[in-house]
Amino acid sequence: MNSITSIALVMLCLIAAWASAGRVRAVVSSFLDRLKALQKGGLSTSREHELYFQTMAEAVPEIIWTADPKGMDDFFNQRCFDYTGLTLEQLRGESWHAIIHPDDLDGCVSKWKSALSTGNPYDVEYRLRGKDGSFRWFLGRANPIRDAKGEIVKWFGTCTDIENQKHNQQVLEQQILERTTQLADTNALLQEEMLEKDFARRELDQQNERMLEELKRRSERAAMLARMGELLQSCVSREEVCAAALGYAPKIFSTVPGAMALLDASRNVTEVIGSWGDCYIPAEVFEPASCWALRTGHPHLVLAGDSTAPCAHAAKVKTTYLCAPILAQGETLGIVHFQATDEAPQMDASELSFKTTFAAQVGLSIANIRLREALRTQSVRDALTGLYNRRYLEETLEREMRRAARATQSLGILMIDLDHFKKFNDTYGHDAGDAVLRETGASLTKGIRAEDFVCRFGGEEFVVILPTADPETSRARAERLRAKMRELTIMYQGKSLGMITISVGVAAFPAHGTSPRELMAAADAALYEAKRGGRDKVVVASAPAIDEAAMPGSGKSVASWT
Description:
By secondary structure, the protein is an alpha+beta fold. The protein has helices spanning 3-18, 25-41, 46-59, 78-84, 88-91, 102-118, 163-205, 209-233, 238-252, 292-296, 349-380, 390-407, 421-428, 430-446, 471-487, 516-532, and strands at residues 63-67, 73-76, 122-129, 135-146, 152-161, 258-263, 270-276, 285-286, 300-302, 321-328, 331-339, 411-418, 453-458, 461-467, 491-492, 495-496, 502-509, 538-540.
């Protein structure tokens, strides 16, 4: 096998190893362009080929290694030496076994031997010891490189750091376990109550047929409450939870009128959002302090005629009533208000328990929704600025481009970079730099429309997506954002940090690209021109930039766009 073929096969393997991650596509693309040029012009020496491959291997943000057909390691990139603190001689043969976690060693060695004997690719997760003695999780992959006869001439492998993914997975599993345990406890309490009621029904069956019918009705309501609980766990918003609860309430409490009231976002006003059974409501809107259940976080029962501690919002209610708080993770969100009637003037202990369980089901469901929303926010929001992150940008840009294509509309994109941010960071410190990034994100958010999206692409780079905006409209909005940044005053430790300027690259669909990659490349090229032209400028892309990511000197942001 000649050198060109060997290099090509190595890089094709590299493409297979990282195609889903998308972090080295630009490196591979650049290498393949170089490879084609070398094929046309002729390669000088095999040494040149080897050096070029090693250079490319060092550019990949992973541990890269190769081995001969028998599995003897003959190359590791510098990232491996930097992490393990070992040399090539120390890693050859089976010496690498010593830096694999003992619990992972057998599985790792077994898969590697199987791959050597069968010639099949392999992947395995294991913990690898660094030079400081600590272990981190890695995903190891290896692929065989074959010649024209199908014989294995080389093994090409990678090790990808997945420590953060493992940690996030463990955190998520723990949160799920905690929520599952809470649900199990709640269901256990409900089942226990149902069993108690069934026992009471069997005892009273011999005494009075009327009591039998009453207990049967209670059992049916408990089952309905359980079904409501299952439905509430499938709701995806607080509005759905409230609508489902108000729908079930008249079925569960057919003889007891009631209403549901929730605190608004400011927590200064409580508003009745719905009622059933001709419930008498003296005030549709009232202050939280006028309800004892909201003030204490506990159910509050007021007997008819008792003036000890009535709720001010129910001052004109003459019958017995109960206010049960709706709690979510210890926070009071509102109340469920129940009223007795002349036909059923009393609320015995079992009725009180049933009603508070109803309110608890509503609160538990809202708590679950909050948890899911928090997890979703963590996955799509940048922790420092609160803006959408790169993952959300990729999903949104692809979706908005499809929508624009279907509607035959334009879509603008602004790639923004803070000018001289590194110099600013070195001068004032990273805390001040973080303050600038936060204020920049806030300024960009205030300067866009409700339908636009602002994302932090990475470092000091931001991307703004402008649905329906053509190139000229996008340029005008970019200019407005640039002008607003010049007017922005950022204070840190009581001192102004001076004027902040930005450079902006503008591109629009379909004028500058018909795919996310092309559009990002066009905006990135325009940003590069703006910075090269003196910064504090807005430059509109002049032509589609399908292969801009592979061009020397292009902006860094598009290099890992998938």
